[in-house]
Design brief:
The complex is a heterodimer of chains A (133) and B (140).
Chain A lengths: L5 H31 L5 H11 L5 H13 L1 H4 L18 H10 L14 H11 L5
Helix pairs in contact in A: 3-6, 5-6
Chain B lengths: L2 H31 L6 H29 L8 H27 L5 H30 L2
Helix pairs in contact in B: 1-2, 1-4, 2-3, 3-4
The chains are: A mainly alpha (133), B mainly alpha (140).
Chain lengths: 133, 140
């Protein structure tokens, strides 16, 4: 291939990177559209969750932060489920929830035992206990 | 395929381009500083091919990340912080690879200096994207 002049290549490179970025945003849109046919889009749930979520304090507030960092991409930002199940109205003991978070579920949910300490798991549980309705 | 599959796929597909782009920057820097070395041409050739293959690999990394995040471009919290760096890094790497591909292995000294400077910025931004991506899995 005959080499381009550096200036011409610079313009072409800007076009290429812009096109690549636009293409990936297009792919994202297609994926979101596909998801929206079976569930509420992520941006919508984030906004709705922010509006509906009551003011949390203490452990529950910290737990919500941990939830958004670690759990939301499977359980949804609003914890109403996505890839993972809906976490509202959990009928499980604290000990059982602690066990599931720490050890995970083989083939379904990763273990968070090494990542989260006991106090953090307790904060997560405190947040999960606020999810009613 | 569940999110665990995509989490693993994203981890695997992301590290390949990161390694290739960092290696490309390393060999290009060697070529830049070893002007009189008989190996300079080989270093430049390595930098040339590594940045091109790395840029191609970055499409797989971004695609798997989009599937994992269900098409989220921005997001919230740690995902948003990761994305603040992912998109500029992706844009820079594709631009740099396209420029290098079109110009060839042996650009002028001045253009190569500018290329290396932007490559350094690209590697830093990509490193930050990787760091915050890892933070989502391993720490907070």
């Amino acid at each position: 291939m005959r080499n381009w002049s550096e200036g011409k290549a610079f313009v072409a490179a800007i076009c290429a990177s812009g096109t690549a970025l636009a293409a990936m945003f297009g792919v994202a849109s297609v994926i979101r559209h596909g998801e929206s046919s079976i569930s509420i889009p992520t941006f919508a749930t984030s906004a709705q969750a922010a509006m509906k979520q009551p003011e949390l304090t203490g452990d529950a507030a910290q737990g919500r932060h941990l939830f958004l960092m670690n759990c939301a991409h499977c359980h949804g930002d609003d914890a109403h489920g996505d890839e993972g199940p809906d976490l509202y109205n959990l009928h499980r003991s604290d000990a059982r929830i602690h066990e599931v978070i720490a050890a995970g579920i083989k083939g379904e949910m990763p273990s968070f035992g090494k990542k989260l300490g006991d106090p953090e798991v307790q904060q997560l549980i405190a947040y999960l206990r606020t999810l009613h309705g | 395929m569940n999110s665990l599959f995509w989490e693993r796929a994203h981890g695997g597909l992301t590290h390949l381009p990161i390694a290739l782009i960092f290696a490309a920057a390393f060999f290009d820097a060697l070529a830049f500083f070893c002007r009189r070395s008989p190996k300079q041409g080989e270093f430049k050739a390595l930098g040339y091919w590594l940045v091109i293959v790395g840029a191609l690999g970055s499409f797989g990394a971004v695609f798997s990340g989009l599937v994992l995040s269900k098409g989220t471009i921005g997001g919230t919290g740690a995902v948003l912080r990761h994305h603040y760096f992912v998109w500029p890094a992706f844009t820079l790497i594709i631009g740099l690879a396209a420029w290098r591909f079109l110009v060839g292995r042996d650009p002028s000294r001045r253009a190569f200096t500018l290329y290396l400077a932007i490559m350094l910025v690209g590697c830093s931004v990509m490193g930050a994207a990787g760091f915050f991506g890892g933070e989502m899995l391993l720490g907070h």
